[in-house]
Amino acid sequence: MSPPSCPPRPEVFVVRSELRSNDRIPPRWLCPLVLGLVLACAAGCQGKGRKAAAQRETSRLVDQAQSAAEQGDVGRAEKLLSAAVAADPSDCETRLQLSELLQEHGSLADAMAHLERAAQQNPEDPRAFVLLARILFDRQQTALADRHAERALELDPHLVQAIVLRGQVAELQGDPDTALRYYYEALAIEPDRAEPRFLAARQLYERGSVEQAAPLLRRLLEESPVCGRHEGDAWWLLGQCYARQERWRDAALALAAGIEQRDPSGTDWKDLAYAQFRSGEIQAARSSLDVAFKLSPEDPEVNTLRRAVEQAASPGIRLSEGQEADRRRE
């Protein structure tokens, strides 16, 4: 019985055999091969050209967006950055800039969409994760925010934004000790950073450690003239620290500075009036109580303090022992 015949070898195997034996390309394959190489090079050059053009257009649009933002035209800046991202969707840096602008002006859903895309495009960049964490925290999705902040810290253990955010999550979860540890960790990395300094001082004040809280607040206000959104609260909290220490004149000055930068309630005006009353500033206390009464006419403490102030303003009325001591210190 004769062995079965082998099927004919495909031509490709013949060509490979020829290449091995003759070490050169057969003439019948030379033209298609050269043509393929030329087309591949042309396509590659064309792709690089398109990429370079997209990058130039993105750079131009980003520059225009920056100019618009500096002139206060935020809407135009947002449109220009959106066009820049559309021109070069792979540009993560521009996408992050756009997402921050969207976040600042309340377009949180759009900002999150861009940040999620940036995190997918560049998963080793912690900035997208921490910005996502901030939005989630502001939307009270604290557990998810904490996971994103944790991921950001895995990529960059010294990212202060993420450390502070984990502290704020711990604070909301009723763990003040962990929160304070995170705030101090952030300050160890950036000692002049305003936000962790204020948050640490607030935690210390709430646990009654006013002797530790007050120096933090004083340094914050002395070394950071522009404290951003925390400035009014920092002055107010410092005034409350002084009030607990019965430093009434200092308390009145700090509370007055804070109330100018807050949206004060009737209780806030009452606290200021009490500090002014205890420091002997009777007329200032009257004025503050007038505002407190307008805002909280039913507050019994406001009415009680008003009577005390009027009695102190009447001739022949002696000050209390504490007020006399304050006067002597002055």
**Fraction of residues in β-strands:** under 5%
Characterize the overall form.
elongated
CATH architecture annotation name of the domain at 85-179? Alpha Horseshoe
Q: Over all CA atoms, what is the radius of gyration?
A: 34 Å
End-to-end gap: 126 Å
Strand elements, count: 0
- The overall average pLDDT, rounded, is 80
CATH superfamily of the domain at 85-179: Tetratricopeptide repeat domain
Question: How many helical elements?
Answer: 17
Largest sheet features: none
Unreliably modeled segments: 1-23, 317-322, 324-330
H/E topology pattern: HHHHHHHHHHHHHHHHH
Kindly name the structural category: mainly alpha
Topology of this protein?
Blueprint: H1 11-22, H2 27-70, H3 74-87, H4 92-104, H5 108-121, H6 126-138, H7 142-155, H8 160-172, H9 176-189, H10 194-206, H11 210-223, H12 231-244, H13 248-259, H14 266-278, H15 282-295, H16 300-313, H17 321-329
Provide a descriptive summary of the structure in words.
The chain has 330 residues and is mostly helical. Among the domains are: 95 residues, Tetratricopeptide repeat domain (Serine Threonine Protein Phosphatase 5, Tetratricopeptide repeat), CATH 1.25.40; 55 residues, no CATH class; 72 residues, no CATH class. Helix 2 runs antiparallel to helix 3, helix 5 packs antiparallel against helix 6 and helix 10 runs antiparallel to helix 11. The longest helix has 44 residues.
Quick take:
By secondary structure, this protein is mostly helical. Among the domains are: 85-179, Tetratricopeptide repeat domain (Serine Threonine Protein Phosphatase 5, Tetratricopeptide repeat); 191-245, no CATH class; 252-257 and 265-330, no CATH class. The chain is 77% helix and 0% strand.
